[in-house]
Design goal:
0% of the residues lie in helices and 40% in strands. The chain is mainly beta. The strands form four sheets. It has a 17-stranded parallel β-sheet that branches. A 14-stranded mixed β-sheet has the order 4-6-8-10-13-16-19-22-25-28-31-35-34-33, with no helix packed on it.
Length: 415
């Protein structure tokens, strides 16, 4: 029998269904809001579709924690509701933590809801921590849902930590959802760190979702970090999702760092997804580092077939990882260049050579209107440094670290 119940201090269990509640305001310096259960959701219980509408008015030192469904765990066959979080106003020296479903773990066969987080706030010295499904770990056969994160305010010296699914780890057979991040507005001297699935690691047979990252705002003297699947490591038989990163905003004196899968090490039999990373255009002071899979790859890890698109700044690109060891193998990656690309570098251009740990990569020059190999201005290959330089136009060039001299087969030309 299904029984819809209002907010509980304890557990939501059996076949209970939480009510659809509206929670508003921040009235004290420390506030805790819970959509359904103060403790846990278990058995076959389901959280309601709750709305959190919070407004701050220049009051410093606020601390708010809002939980879409449970303050503790969601386990067994429990499910989170489709909750909505919105924050507006002005914040100073404050801390906000929003949990789409569980404040702690999601385990068993539990599933998160499709939650929406919207920050339209002017902030200074404030930390925002958002979790799509679980505040800590997801394990068993738990599944994250398709959550949406957006920022459209103005920030100064603030920190944004967005986690698509879990703030901690995805392990065992857990699956991340297909999440969307849209970071707009303006950020100055701030840290923006967006992770598609886990704030920690992916291990066991965990699978990351197919996430989309869009940076449409502007930043100045900030650090913008993007992780397709794990902010930490991927190990065992973990698999990254097919993620898309689009930097369509502007950036001045900021550092932009993209990892298609893991910010740490891919080891064991971990597999990277087929990711697309599009670097930013605009200011020539943009510094972007694009890494298709992970910082390092070891053991029998396998990189995905990634697409890295140069922006207008000076971009450093690795199709696979900055360091590859053991029996790890890179994927077959594509590096795309457009007019006004700046001074770029490909650090690991694979040409399918026997014994190489790099795959068979390609340089796509179709957007430059180049139709034949003879149209390219390529310097002589240096066998000592394994470098050659392609000059597209004055002030726009590409240094390629390859195994052998570049040939026609290494390029994709305009038909």
């Amino acid at each position: 029998m299904i029984k819809r119940v209002p907010i509980l201090e304890g557990d939501l269990d059996d076949h209970q269904v939480g009510s659809d509640d509206v929670l508003t305001g921040i009235s004290t310096s420390t506030s805790i809001l819970v959509g359904d259960a103060g403790q846990n959701i278990l058995d076959h219980a389901i959280g309601g579709n709750d709305t959190f509408s919070l407004v701050v008015v220049s009051q410093p030192n606020l601390r708010n924690s809002s939980y879409g469904d449970a303050g503790g765990d969601i386990s067994d066959h429990g499910r989170g509701g489709n909750d909505t979080f919105s924050l507006s106003g002005n914040s100073l020296q404050s801390f906000f933590s929003f949990y789409g479903d569980a404040g702690s773990n999601v385990s068993g066969h539990a599933e998160g809801g499709d939650d929406t987080f919207s920050l339209a706030v002017t902030s200074s010295l404030t930390t925002f921590s958002l979790y799509g499904d679980a505040g800590t770990d997801m394990s068993g056969h738990a599944k994250g849902s398709s959550d949406t994160f957006s920022f459209s305010g103005n920030s100064s010296q603030s920190t944004f930590m967005f986690n698509g699914d879990a703030g901690g780890n995805l392990t065992e057979h857990a699956e991340g959802g297909n999440d969307t991040f849209n970071f707009g507005g303006f950020s100055s001297q701030s840290l923006v760190s967006l992770s598609g699935d886990a704030g920690g690691d992916l291990s066991g047979y965990a699978v990351g979702g197919n996430d989309t990252f869009i940076f449409s705002g502007s930043s100045s003297r900030s650090g913008n970090l993007f992780y397709g699947d794990a902010r930490g490591n991927m190990s065992d038989h973990a698999e990254g999702g097919n993620d898309t990163f689009i930097f369509s905003g502007s950036s001045s004196l900021s550092g932009n760092l993209f990892y298609g899968d893991a910010g740490g090490t891919m080891s064991g039999d971990a597999r990277g997804g087929n990711d697309t990373i599009i670097a930013g255009s605009g200011s020539p002071l943009v510094s972007s580092i694009l890494v298709g899979d992970a910082e390092t790859m070891s053991d029998d890890a396998q990189g995905g077939n990634d697409t890295l698109v140069s922006g207008s700044g000076n971009d450093q690109m690795w199709g696979d990882a900055r360091v590859i060891s053991g029996n790890a193998q890179g994927g077959n990656d594509t590096f795309v260049f457009k007019p006004s690309n700046g001074h770029d570098t490909i650090e690991d251009f694979g040409q399918g050579q026997l014994g190489s740990q790099w795959g068979t990569d390609h340089i796509d020059v179709r957007a430059l209107g180049i139709q034949t190999f003879s149209e390219l201005n390529i310097s002589e290959f240096d066998p000592a440094t394994h470098e050659s330089t392609i000059t597209f136009s004055p002030g726009n060039d590409l240094v390629v670290h390859s195994q052998i001299a570049l040939s026609e087969n290494d390029f994709l030309f305009m038909a």
